[in-house]
Specification:
Elements (H helix, E strand, L loop, with lengths): L22 H17 L3 H17 L3 H18 L2 H17 L3 H17 L3 H18 L2 H18 L2 H17 L3 H18 L2 H19 L2 H18 L2 H17 L3 H17 L3 H17 L4 H18 L2 H14 L6
């Protein structure tokens, strides 16, 4: 049985914040508490409130502010001699590095966080850090390397009755199945994640699960209307909580659904919006995926074939440099679909 979802990254005086609190509210409360802790020399509290500040900035797409905040949280934790708080700060930094496409740095910081979490006796930050490592590998397309870790973390989360982490693990495993063509299995896992998230009042996890269901409904069933309905429901949550990254991925997925339905002009508008959103938060993976969709739409709408070929070749090189194996395979499929393989 799962309890109500909670946000362990909201610590110290901020534990009263809900997992569903608007990120602007989290940022305001965290900044106020952080300033108070710094004025009174409470280093441990500065580290804990600074973590919430860092995470709010990161999820709002404010990359520079997030980078400064997690490092300040780490310094305060070190001054306080709080090993677990140091681990949480490193987890935040590693998660930010992954968001920025800096995968080697993300793995290094997340492994350090997991090690410090174990040393500090905080099983939650250890679990979150290992989950971060698993997600980093999954995003890069190293499914064989991280599938077992996803399953291990799912089992641990189920055993503890931790709804939010169970939802995360189910969604990660579902995404692996979706990307390897096991659509029925993926749908069942996304559906379970949505049900658990709804019961636990984890609105963020529920929104991501709805996005996954919309993808499967579109690609497997060809049900464009139902897919768009699911995405609209998820978008309402993203807007209510100011989830900038989730909203951008929602718009990108809406573009995917419209593209599959042959509604290329509408899809182009969604990809353009998503690309602008990803650029605003310096999110290279999202930018690459939105650019891919945009290039395919423009090709379908009559763009010069050589321009399409050149852009896909440039995008392939970018993804090779970033290290996004699955996205690179998507570009290869687009090159085959649009007849530009020879220009690679």
């Amino acid at each position: 049985m799962y309890g109500k979802a909670f946000a362990p990254e909201y610590q110290g005086a901020l534990t009263t914040l809900s997992v569903n609190s608007s990120l602007t509210d989290v940022l305001a409360a965290g900044t106020e508490e952080l300033r108070s802790a710094e004025r009174t020399g409470r280093h441990r509290e500065a580290a804990r409130s600074g973590l919430a500040v860092a995470e709010a900035h990161r999820r709002l797409g404010q990359i520079g502010e997030a980078d400064r905040a997690w490092k300040a949280s780490y310094r305060a934790a070190r001054q306080a001699g709080d090993t677990a708080a140091m681990a949480w700060a490193l987890w935040s930094g590693g998660t930010l590095a992954r968001q920025r496409g800096e995968f080697p740095l993300a793995r290094r910081l997340l492994q350090l966080a997991a090690d410090l979490g174990e040393r500090g006796g905080d099983i939650v930050v250890r679990g979150y850090s290992l989950a971060g490592l698993a997600e980093t590998g999954r995003i890069q397309g190293d499914y064989e390397a991280v599938a077992r870790l996803h399953e291990q973390l799912l089992a641990e989360a189920r055993r503890r009755g931790e709804a939010r982490h169970t939802v995360w693990a189910l969604e990660g495993i579902a995404q692996i199945h979706r990307n390897t063509g096991s659509f029925d299995t993926a749908y069942a896992l996304f559906e379970e994640a949505a049900e658990i998230a709804a019961r636990a009042d984890d609105r963020r996890g529920h929104a991501w699960a709805l996005r996954g269901l919309a993808d499967i409904v579109s690609v497997r069933d060809g049900d464009t209307g139902r897919a768009l309905e699911l995405l609209s429901e998820a978008e309402a949550t993203c807007r209510a909580m100011n989830l900038s990254s989730a909203l951008a991925y929602n718009h990108k997925m809406r573009g995917n659904v419209l593209y599959r339905a042959g509604r290329y002009a509408e899809a182009r508008e969604l990809y353009e919006r998503a690309l602008a959103e990803f650029r605003a938060m310096s999110e290279p993976r999202g930018q690459a995926l939105a650019r891919l969709g945009l290039t395919k739409c423009r090709a379908r709408l009559g763009r010069d074939h050589s321009e399409t070929a050149a852009e896909l070749a440039e995008l392939a090189g970018t993804l090779d440099r970033i290290g996004l194996k699955h996205a690179r395979e998507m570009v290869a499929r687009a090159q085959e679909e649009l007849g530009t393989e020879a220009v690679r």
